[in-house]
Design brief:
The chain is mainly α. The chain folds into two domains: 265 residues, Fido-like domain (Fic-like fold); 51 residues. Helices cover 56% and strands 2% of the residues. The chain has a three-stranded antiparallel beta sheet with strand order 1-3-2. Helix 6 packs antiparallel against helix 7. The longest helix is centred in the last third of the chain and has 23 residues. It starts with 7 loop residues before the first helix and ends with a helix. Pfam families: Fic (PF02661). This is Fic/DOC family protein. One of its GO terms (molecular function) is ATP binding. Keywords: ATP-binding, Nucleotide-binding. It comes from Lapillicoccus jejuensis.
């Protein structure tokens, strides 16, 4: 019988269990210096997918070449390359600032100055080659819009521009309350914060990219891996945002929780866990070049792969045990 899709609450529970395990057994998120490769790959993936959500056409390999080597591979419009450069600069700033805050922070989760800095880092490179056609001198990257925004096709209307400053002051105050206990699931509180930023639409352009970067700044500061919304999830993401516009934060919260858990298992856990440490099978699967999660789970259930079942039903194994299983599997195949 096919397994049904896990409930939203199960998705939330799995995320919190995985984060607790990361903090208690593996020492939490590594710093950029401790695990440069992890953050570099997250950096590439986020810059690619987040700009692609806004229409950028660079493929992942072109993004890597551009960010790592400064090479503009392909024949795309200069504006597209600068969109990726700006996002890459901002994401690198976000990860570094989140894990190792500078002296200008006061201990809050977020400040207005950081909001402005994220937008400036994101938009300044592209603004130099393709500024917004309606921007005034007071609307350069990092400064609030001085225009009203037309209603969105789905019906949401951002507030008039004179209200932006006080709305953003209130928004930052709400963000700084995220560390407090609340009845709502944490992922849905994040969803509300993210959606409210987009509803305010504080800048003339670049609000989507800045909003996702700010979401990741908050996540990493709170000890979670960043969330990456993949470009093939664009329709689901926008639908979840529209639901959130109407006060239903569940779909967006679930999307965020799944994205964070995916990055945790795909990038973080394999790098911080030694080859002998027990980790979820999802952290040991490679859907492209190695054993798939379904195959590892089947091998564990049949006793062919050394593994243990956690109280919550998650199968745990180690890199050493998976390597041993694969070695014996290939030996049996040859025989």
């Amino acid at each position: 019988m096919a397994r049904g899709r896990p409930s939203r609450q199960t998705v939330y529970d799995r995320l919190e269990e995985a984060i607790t395990d990361l903090r208690t057994r593996m020492g939490g998120l590594p710093s950029p210096d401790e695990a440069e490769a992890i953050w570099a790959e997250l950096w590439h993936q986020e810059a690619h997918h987040s700009t692609a959500l806004e229409g950028n056409t660079l493929v992942l390999n072109e993004v890597r070449k551009l960010l790592d080597e400064g090479r503009a591979v392909g024949s795309k419009d200069l504006k597209e390359y600068m969109e990726v450069v700006g996002y890459g600069n901002a994401a690198k700033w976000v990860y570094g600032q989140a894990l190792e805050p500078g002296d200008w922070t006061n201990g809050d989760l977020l400040s207005i100055q950081e909001v402005r800095t994220v937008h400036h880092e994101t938009m300044d490179p592209v603004w130099r080659v393709a500024p917004h056609p309606h921007a005034t001198r007071a609307e350069t990257p990092g400064r609030w819009r001085q225009h009203d925004i037309a209603p969105f096709p789905e019906g949401m209307t951002p507030p008039p521009f004179p209200e932006v400053h006080h709305r953003m002051t209130d928004w930052v105050a709400a963000v700084n309350g995220l560390r407090q206990e609340a009845e709502e699931p944490f992922a849905e509180r994040l969803a509300q914060v993210h959606n409210n930023f987009e509803k305010i639409h504080p800048f003339l352009d670049g609000n989507g990219r800045s909003g996702r970067l700010l979401l990741n700044l908050l996540l990493v500061r709170l000890g979670y891996p960043p969330a990456i919304v993949f470009k093939n999830e664009r329709a689901r993401y926008l639908k979840a945002m529209r639901k959130a516009d109407g006060g239903d934060y569940g779909p967006l919260g679930e999307l965020i929780a799944r994205a964070v858990t995916n990055n945790l298992y795909k990038f973080v856990v394999p790098a911080v866990a030694g080859p002998a440490r027990l980790v979820p099978l999802a952290s040991l699967a490679d859907e492209k070049a190695g054993p798939r999660l379904r195959a590892l789970r089947a091998a564990a259930e049949r006793g062919r792969l050394r593994a243990q079942k956690a109280p919550n039903g998650t199968w745990l194994s180690s890199r050493n045990w998976v390597d041993e299983y694969l070695k014996n599997k290939y030996r049996r195949t040859k025989e």
